[in-house]
């Protein structure tokens, strides 16, 4: 779609046609559509990964369903304990894909339009820099999680159908396999995980956007080199590793903060002592209260807000490279 057609669709027309313009302009929604037009991998990459995962599970079930059923009959294992296993890997793989697409999109979102000089066209439209930046930030924190959740649900339904056909082909009891599968808990787990991961990783996306708004080339290097330099300097100068710990916590700290196997209170010092047990799909093992009380979450969101403010200022004064 050409730039002129996009402008006409947004309700922005040339001066000689202003008198006949009747379209209503919705800058934010059209800015989101622009990002999807210009970056097909936002939706394409998760679809490809989901398709590959489904095909992998299909071929695995074709080969392994028979031997698994023989082992279940010999060991008196509940079929549902095995039937749920193919449903678990796809959401995880799609989640990793979402993070990768979000980070690389953020690194290129503002740099790309300066390199191909399309920033001159987009700045000529009555769309503010704030709207543009917020629409770009909405891709990793809103669009990608929604796309990932929809694809995960569709993939789970496809796997359910494939597994049901495999069970019927081996004359196994479908009802006993699916009777105790916690469908609602699985859906809740996927939605909860997407929300907490998106909130936790928001400062990473904001940092990548900030680098994209400032750097002239190689945004990935500019995004990671400062942390390596700081970590190296800290190790040499102070013999500590706080920067490394900070990086580890920002990438992996969401899971200890948002999930737990449970807690019990020590009667003497009131320390929280973890205990094991329970299903990983049980909502009792999700700790949204603990997650919301984690200082790193709110410090990260504060950094995200400050970074967005700086990004808007940078784009306001930026031009083609």
General description of the model:
- The protein is mainly alpha-helical and 321 residues long.
- The chain has one domain.
- Helix content is 73%, strand content 2%.
- It contains 15 helices and two strands.
- The chain has a two-stranded antiparallel ribbon.
- The longest helix is centred in the middle third of the chain and has 41 residues, at 129-169.
- It starts with a helix and ends with a helix.
- Mean pLDDT is 81; it is low at 12-24 and 262-280.
Q: By helix and strand content, what is the structural category?
A: mainly alpha
Order of helices and strands: HHHHHHHHHHHHHEEHH
Largest sheet: 2 strands, antiparallel
State the end-to-end CA separation. Answer: 24 Å
What features would you highlight for this structure?
mainly alpha; two-stranded antiparallel ribbon; 321 residues; 73% helix; single chain; 15 helices; globular
What's the SSE blueprint?
Elements: H1 3-9, H2 27-38, H3 41-75, H4 79-83, H5 89-109, H6 111-115, H7 119-124, H8 129-169, H9 174-178, H10 183-214, H11 219-238, H12 242-252, H13 254-258, E1 263-265, E2 272-274, H14 288-292, H15 295-317
Antiparallel strand pairs: 1-2
Helix pairs in contact: 2-8, 3-5, 3-8, 5-8, 5-10, 8-10, 8-15, 10-11, 10-15, 11-12
Give a quick summary of the entry.
The chain is mainly α and 321 residues long.
